[in-house]
Amino acid sequence: MSDLRWGQNVCRMQVLIANFTEFQLATVFTFLLHETVFFLSGLPSLLFERFGLFAKYKIQKKSNTSAYQNRCVLRLILYHVCVNLPVMIFSYPAFKFMGLRSSLPLPRWVLETVEAHSGYHFPWSPSNFLPLYGGSDFHDYHHRVLYTKSGNYASTFVYMDWLFGTDKDYRKVKAIEEKEEGKKNM
């Protein structure tokens, strides 16, 4: 049975390769695939907030209205279409010149991106088990200080923050938040 599925997947890939150019597959098809995975896998986080689920795991304690969430999603789509897609299209010749090839399936970094931007830090979050992964909590801080010349490297390069000392402010903020949380629970 698994051989049959593998054969069907190979056949689907051959149909794509036969009907679309490498440029189309590497740019438009990859973009559409990325957008589908990005927004569908981010949908649970959106619904968690909209319906108040898992609020105790939410990193930013402010509550966003449905209108604000809708505006945010529309801005994300606009940004992805107006920035990411053109970058993919115009960088394709350079990548091809360097000998890089496109590959399917979708890279793991798309799922990491969704987790890092979820806005939730669950007990089962990968950052609780992977020491060099900062996860959504660290990434949220990255967005808070993005334009302050902090040098914070986001969720996947936490070792760089440790090397350059740019995680010190994050650690201070976390200590203060834990102290305040401890006072509330007394």
UniProtKB/TrEMBL annotation:
Q: Which InterPro entries match?
A: Sterol_Desaturase_Related
Record's keyword terms, sorted: Membrane, Transmembrane, Transmembrane helix
Q: What is this protein identified as?
A: Uncharacterized protein
Q: What transmembrane ranges does the database entry give? A: 37-55, 76-95
Source domain of life is: Eukaryota
Specify whether Transmembrane is a keyword of the entry.
yes
Per the UniProt entry, what species is this protein from, by scientific name? Panicum miliaceum (Proso millet)
